[in-house]
Amino acid sequence: MDRTSFFVGVAALAATVALTAAPAHAAPPSHFAEPINLTYQEDYLTDFCGIPVFFTLAGTLKTTLRYDGSGAIIAEVDTQPGATLSFTAPTTGKSFSFPFAAILHTDYTDGAALGSDAVAYGSGLSLKVPGISAHAGRVAFSAIVVDKTPYGVPIVAFTGVIFWAGHENDPDTVDAAFCSALAA
Fold this sequence. Notes:
This protein is of the alpha+beta class. The protein is built from three helices and nine strands; from the N terminus they run H-E-H-E-E-E-E-E-E-E-E-H. It has helices at 3-20, 43-49, 171-182, and strands at 30-41, 54-67, 73-79, 84-89, 94-99, 102-108, 117-127, 135-148, 154-167.
């Protein structure tokens, strides 16, 4: 047996042992899907535009929780496949919608216990108002676990922005674009 064949054999044996070794026994991920159709009056835009403006989130919210070897929650991924965000002004009959095309990945400390710290990373489209370019990019938030759903999915409150990269419009430009898109 030459040296190359020996090393290839050792590498193959090592790979076989690694692939058949016992796993770390982390619990399998949990998956949740929740249909949502939420509408409420958007007070800030109602006041700013001088006409009633309503916000609607419609679609399905999906969550995946990941666990460590002890069964403690270590991460969460939230997506909204096919969900839309809509803004409507019933008095003018105008509205616009765009896909809720963002992903939120959250890393937890202390098993996502109430009061524990977390870091949430969001990416994707966050706002698309007619007449201006999309507000999209990546953001990281510091957060704290404030509650859990009946299924045990942590609910976090963002406590600050750690990082932001992408495109965002001037807030005054966004406000004016909202009113223009929804006005008579």
